[in-house]
């Protein structure tokens, strides 16, 4: 496979065209950002850890019947993925109150949310990814009714699979965001699943083992990511 021109560069990943029209190369960089790019640092090894972590999670989801764009690892920091027509919405599930829901609703951090909450957000950094609802999505043509239902069903299936996976490793899946795209007439999971896009706490101590360590200046970000990976059995060699 030949790596060609850069298609897109995000806060922590770059996407490249390839000589195969339906395949892309996803590169995980060491860049780390928070607050819509207001805080940025380079953290050694982070790209490698996230690439291998994402590959592990995507393969687990595929085994559980969740279709994803992941194809294979290409290098320590790169993966081959299907080329999707991405939908401009993020799907967020919250199992435990943390982050923006605490600020918005004034609820206590750490309370269990039963049932879990589901929220849609528009992917728009300039507007700080505003919360939207199904009416907005339909009205502005961001996805069809059927696609909305598919995204919701897949997102809750992901929750079922990953809550159990992390629980077995002594971890709490607090919340996470997912992105989807169209591929050959169906909706499949795209983007990534790493500690950059979810919250993970130690089940006993409730220590934060995700990007909140960077947001809140706790430190030990990559070390926490590696600790989670080791608990799950992800090979980082």
Automatic annotation (TrEMBL):
SUPFAM superfamilies per the UniProt record, alphabetical: SAICAR synthase-like (SSF56104)
Protein name stated in the entry: Phosphoribosylaminoimidazole-succinocarboxamide synthase
EC number(s) given by UniProt: 6.3.2.6
Organism: Thiohalomonas denitrificans
Underlying gene: purC
Top-tier EC class: ligase
Keyword DNA repair in record: no
Start and end residues of each SAICAR synthetase/ADE2 N-terminal domain: 7-231
One term of GO molecular function: ATP binding
Record's keyword terms, sorted: ATP-binding, Ligase, Nucleotide-binding, Purine biosynthesis
